Amino acid sequence: MAITIEQIKELREATGVGILDCRKALEQSNGDYQKAVDYLREKGLAKAAKRADREASEGVVELYSHGNGRVGVMVEVNCETDFVGRSEGFRKFAHEVALQIAAASPRYVRKEDVTEDVLERERQIARARALEEGKPASVVDRIVEGRIEKFYDEACLLRQPYIRDEQVTIEKLLHEQIAALGENIVIRRFVRWELGESLLD
Q1: Over pLDDT 90: what percentage of the chain?
Q2: The CATH number of the domain covering residues in 5-51
Q3: pLDDT tens digit string along 9-28?
Q4: DSSP three-state, residue 4
Q5: Can you tell me whether residue 185 is helix, strand or coil?
Q6: Are 126 and 148 within 8 A, CB to CB?
Q7: For 117, phi and psi rounded to 5 degrees?
Q8: Residue 200: pLDDT above 60?
Q9: Domain residues of the chain, as ranges?
Q10: Helix axes 5-15, 19-28, angle to 10 degrees
Q11: Which CATH architecture has domain 58-107+159-200?
């Protein structure tokens, strides 16, 4: 199938990717625009992996207050250079991360941050629940591991579905930013406060 200049131009304007890469993506996907976008996203993820070991110590501490001051978020998002740290795209990404934290209440940035004692407690709860539901002993371990994966999806920021597009995880959104901005970007840490939450503990 012949790829037209208009198709390449449309894809380039939407993604910010070079002409040759857009042409290749369209050729790989037989002119299917959405498949071409997906192809470029996957390619962006490959670029992101190459940048992951680069030092990221610039960036921003984004502050966000929600619901007339009922929820407050502070998140540190790092990049490699001050130039990118001041850019509109980077700032917008940091703001979106803060919105995500306010809305979805993650407890950790990444899966590796979850401590073993928290995991063990979650496993015990999942096991007790499975047995209480009358599940056969032979499948309880599989059920427990499935519930641990679900716990990671809910509690770890990078594994959460993005509040604006549930087909995209925060990790995928992060990798898209790395590809778009050309620098390693790290969501370093965050805190989330909710009015009166200490009273519930």
Answers
A1: 48
A2: 1.10.8.10
A3: 887 766 666 778 888 889 98
A4: coil
A5: coil
A6: yes
A7: -70, -35
A8: no
A9: 5-51, 58-107+159-200, 115-154
A10: 110
A11: 2-Layer Sandwich (3.30)
Distances (CA, A) of 87 to 22, 34, 52, 81: 24, 28, 20, 10
Which residue type does 56 have?
Answer: A
Output the six-digit token pair for 17.
């990717």
Q: Which CATH class is domain 115-154?
A: mainly alpha
Locate tokens 């999806």: which residue? 153
What span, in angstroms and rounded, lies between the C-alpha atoms of 112 and 130?
Answer: 25
The answer to whether 58-107+159-200 and 115-154 have equal CATH topology is no
Pairing type for strands 165-169 and 58-66 reads unpaired
pLDDT digits over 170-196, tens only? 999 998 888 888 888 999 999 999 988
Would the pLDDT of 87 be above 60?
Answer: yes
